[in-house]
Amino acid sequence: MTLLETDRLTLRKITVDDDAFILDLLNQPSFIQFIGDRGVRTLDDAREYISARFIASYEKFGFGLYLTSLKENEIPIGICGLVKRDTLKDVDVGFAFLPQYWLQGYAFESASAVMGYAKNILDIQRVVGIATPDNQGSMRVLEKLGLRFERMIKLSEDDIELKLFG
Ligand SMILES: CC(C)(COP(=O)(O)OP(=O)(O)OC[C@H]1O[C@@H](n2cnc3c(N)ncnc32)[C@H](O)[C@@H]1OP(=O)(O)O)[C@@H](O)C(=O)NCCC(=O)NCCS
């Protein structure tokens, strides 16, 4: 069931059947570097993670991260959506794509649709973005979405400082 559609992309909820794609995405060196190592190493791990994180978010908040696929052939290329973290007051926009699909405007295109959905359908008036200070690509996407650097934050005591865009 498609939730959002753009010129080139469709977004839908992630299910446990997306285990192989999620296993691949979460083990990309870029994902581990800029987002974190989720410790997902097997298809079983992936299914567990999908249930505990993605599906749990849909059930708890009514939103979450969505599978983002090419409209023309339904091939999944990444995830994009909304995240509510325990340690951050605001909802933040999140995205991650397989490297072969970078620099083609897909992050901006999907995240624009997600921002519109947050504001117009979910009535969330403030959506922020967070990125590690060395994540040029992510910061550029957030700026293109109209967000501006506000301050440095830490999601937990022992975490590194992140840039918050709002
Ligand atoms: C960050 C990421 C999502 C960007 O995706 P993308 O589809 O390549 O982004 P877009 O093609 O929509 O690019 C949007 C803008 O950012 C710029 N951009 C993208 N990646 C860039 C990079 N590595 N360095 C500098 N600029 C970059 C693009 O040139 C474009 O700007 P422009 O329109 O002014 O030319 C992608 O690199 C990724 O998945 N990285 C790993 C996961 C990650 O870091 N997620 C974000 C966590 S906060």
Can you list the ligands bound to this structure? coenzyme A
User: Averaged pLDDT, please?
Assistant: 97
| Count of helical regions | 5
What is the radius of gyration?
A: 15 Å
Q: Per CATH, what is the topology?
A: Aminopeptidase
Low-pLDDT windows of residues: none
Q: How is this structure best described in words?
A:
The structure is a single chain. This protein has 166 residues and is an alpha+beta fold. The chain has one domain (2-125): Aminopeptidase (3-Layer(aba) Sandwich). It is built from 5 helices and 8 strands. An 8-stranded mixed sheet has the order 1-2-3-4-5-6-8-7. A hairpin with a 6-residue loop joins β4 and β5. α1 packs across α3 (43-61). The protein is globular and about 40 Å long. It starts with a strand and ends with a strand. The mean pLDDT is 97. The site of coenzyme A (COA) has 22 residues, from α2, β5, α4 and α5.
Please summarize what this structure is.
This protein has helices spanning 19-26, 29-34, 43-61, 106-121, 136-144, and strands at residues 2-5, 9-13, 65-70, 76-84, 91-97, 127-131, 149-153, 162-165. It has 166 residues and is of the alpha+beta class.
Summary tags:
166 residues; alpha+beta; 27% strand
Annotate the secondary structure layout.
Blueprint: E1 2-5, E2 9-13, H1 19-26, H2 29-34, H3 43-61, E3 65-70, E4 76-84, E5 91-97, H4 106-121, E6 127-131, H5 136-144, E7 149-153, E8 162-165
Parallel strand pairs: 5-6
Antiparallel strand pairs: 1-2, 2-3, 3-4, 4-5, 6-8, 7-8
Helix pairs in contact: 1-3
Bound molecules: coenzyme A.
